[in-house]
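REQUEST FORM: STRUCTURE PREDICTION
Request ID: SP-0412
Submitted by: Lab K.M.
Chain count: 1
Length (residues): 83
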Amino acid sequence: MKLLYFAWIREKIGHAEEDIPLPSSVHDVETLLSWLSDQYPHIEEILSDKRSVRVAVNQEHAQPTTPVSDTDEVALFPPVTGG
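STATUS: Completed
RESULT:
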């Protein structure tokens, strides 16, 4: 799975993207975020406030129940406001 990080999330993590093997226990966005928090301390801090991070799967806004697979591109980014 390719993970992409944008804006201040990218700044906190220190890189824009990474490839990870998807564990068999991960099947949707919610379990992915939980697994990432457990595996990577730098991501746990970012995900501690779920309102501050949005997720897209294959360039589509995702909900916690959105399925994920090993071939997906998952982006983490802050909420965006328009004007």
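NOTES: The longest helix spans residues 29-39.
Reviewed by: T.R.
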